[in-house]
Structures
1.
Amino acid sequence: MSQTKPYRVSHLDALEAESIFVMREVMAEFERPVLLFSGGKDSIVMLRLAEKAFAPARIPFPVMHVDTGHNFAEVLEYRDSRVATLGLNLVVASVQEAIDTGLVRELPDGTRNRIQTPVLLAAVEKYRFDALFGGARRDEEKARAKERMFSFRDEFGQWDPKNQRPELWGLYNGKHHPGESIRVFPLSNWTELDIWHYIAKEQVPLPSIYYAHDREVVERNGMFYAVNEFIKLRDGETSEVRKVRYRTVGDASQTAAVLSEADTVDKVIDEVAATRITERGATRGDDKVSEAAMEDRKREGYF
């Protein structure tokens, strides 16, 4: 008598199933969810998971981009193309409009990452979103490592790391009062390497800046920033054209590239497997303001 082979689920399939379960749970519990979509790799994977979670129907919620105005052109082009292909409703919360209307003030150094938070909270209030899908992962940064998959935010959009709800046996508590909201992180248990393996498996297209290319950069504090309209050379600095790629995409004035020859998905996977520094630690200037920079921003209402 032939024996039945044991049923095994791969690591990626298990992560995918968990994320899809979380997305469906949100649709069952909340009235007005939205997916935060920047055109970065994590939000792109999240969008792919949403496709699979609700197929053959269309994705049943809008996507929102908190637009600092300091964007990489390749990423904006990808964002608009992907939204059009999937027939999604795109909500753009503009930091520049918020500056023009007086909601926020431009910082002296010209960076806009910190002033995204009031713009995000204003959009949440305007559109009455009660659940926001974010692409944060626990392996990225220590503040994100201790955040729950369903992260409760009070009526001011603030997060209290000492007052988090238990999530035993995959049970998620989405109860909230009017004005409160939940940030939902379906990719919490994924790693950067998992993301790239999934991109390879699903053949998900990405903006070209995620692969090695020639770009004019300037080195500051050990990081390579693209020379563009947002980053000008300072006195004594010189730029050079180097082969680089971006591990993460954020505000163009604070996101650095890494030296790389990885111009294909397989080469990127090999490169990520060998690295010992997270993508935020290696490339995000906004996380180096202080040891608690990310947690401080999350307490204020950041993603």
Note: The beta strands are 33-36, 63-67, 90-94, 131-133, 150-153, 181-184, 213-220, 223-226, 240-245, 258-259.
2.
Amino acid sequence: MAVAESPPSDPEAPPKVRVGRTPGRLGNRVFQGISTASGIFILIILAAVAIFLLVRAWPALIAAPSAFEDVGFMLGRDLWSWVWPLLFGTAISSVIALVVAVPLSIGIGLFISHYAPRRLAQGLGYLIDLLAAIPSVIFGLWGIQWLQPLVSPLFTWLSTNGATAWLEENVGPTIFTGYQAPARNILTAGLVLAIMILPIITATVREVFLQTPRLHEEASLALGATRWEMIRQAVLPFGRSGVISATMLGLGRALGETMAVLMVLSPGYLINFYLLQPGQHQSIAANIASHFPEASGLGVDALIASGLILFIMTFGVNLIARWIISRRAEFSGAN
């Protein structure tokens, strides 16, 4: 019985695609569904928080100014004249924290990524990460018991030295005018916030600097650049967007910090730049934590309205940061 020979297979023919169920297809669908649901869930939570704040704050937003006269902690002010000093105190303490923390974080990140020996860099990296796990109440205690006595002589000198006295006599009050011990002022609160956001910014900046393409660094060194010139020409331009992202992360932490500011700062409801005077400023988050247990009725609505303003402020900061980063997305070390 003759057996029919099968035609020779064409080596250039495309491989046959198996039709039917392929391994892993069900897993891909499940994973895609879970990922999509997680993204939608985050949007739902964000929308729910915004709606809750708006609904609870609405009575305070539409109330007449005279309605707040019975709210003791508002000191007879209407909603907006009460909120503006809190918004100013929140902003100025966060700016002080960024001015101190960002240069330190960039320096630490560059040292860990490009200067320190490997073992030392690993140890410093672990130490920085551990600082991020310290509760804010510990930072508040540290600020009261250690930082305030340490900076008090410096603040005294800043307030009484010849240059400050000459400026006060010929120009007017300065930002260092009127220091009174202990150092329960907005500058001390900003320094505590700077230490608190330092680990977040440093960890992000360090990882961004480590992602700099090796070829860029070697090309700069091959052209005769020193290590610092290589960092300035290759590392810093590549990591610029990452530094902005890290700064915005730190700013978000500083804007919403509550317990440390509440413990360190002597509160006030004024808008000025007297950084060393106690009883001048207060942040929104610390003010809510301070007065919420005793608030009732319209006072609760006013506190929630201030929380809504803080929510909008934080959301706006993040939107601006994303817009800045998107302008340099092709060069970003954070994307």
Note: The domain at 32-332 is CATH 1.10.3720.10 (MetI-like fold).
3.
Amino acid sequence: MLAQILSTMLPVFLIAGCGALYGRYRTPDIKGLNTLNMELFVPMLVFAVLADQQAPLQDYTSLALAATVVVLGSGIVLYPLARILNLNLKTFLPPMMFNNSGNMGIPVLVFAFGEAALPAAVVLFVVEMLLHFTVGIYMLDPHTSIIRRLRIPVIAASIAGLTVNFGGVPMPQWLLETLNMLGGVCIPLMLFTLGVRMLDVDFSDWKLGVLGAISAPASGLILAWPMIAILDLPGLQIAALWVFAAMPSAVLNYMLAEQYQQEPHKVASLVLMSNLGSLVVMPIVLGLVFTAGYV
């Protein structure tokens, strides 16, 4: 089991570590890299996986439902805590709800469970992204245009991929292979840029950050348990849901907080401390998943 955990987490830590090491001595254009990734490579991977009819998406509807409950339910579960501690809801709740299913989720699931886990990883990522760019942005600014949200490349690629899959539109294998190869760039690039971002950890709000590092995975795992008990999920999807539920906050939370001027320094602390906390949380969750024998 230890060998399985190490073989999963070491590539993640090493690639992120390379980003941190490079960022320590250079000043890479992280904004540019993230823009390239989110506007080109990630949409290509999302479309290729969703459009590939060899992975029937109807088999993942229950997983998508469970992921929706985990994301939205986390906000409901932690709402009383935020009220009791007198925290700004727009600052605290989005990072607790919208997790790092892209930068960390896809690589961890693929490294842990192999290429067979890629469709589940992408479905979880798409659910989180769709909710983030609809519910999440509405939480920050209720007046944001729906048309503007639909123009986001990942959302457009998701809609196009789902349309192709459910519509039975034939896709040339050479095209899917090309999109998969280009989209494959996004996985190591996500981890590399995450490593560079980790250098920006601000410890001035460390208490709030520690609270978030505990609350985000705890609320997700609490909500995943009844979903697994209620829904008839295959073993691989159960394993993917446990890992998804324990993911730290998405870096995108910080980017949106900066864009909407929603206490970005506090959101940065929540996000980065949560990702640091995942160094402890992820090996524990993976250990439990491997022990349970879901895959």
Note: DSSP finds 14 helices and no strands in the chain.
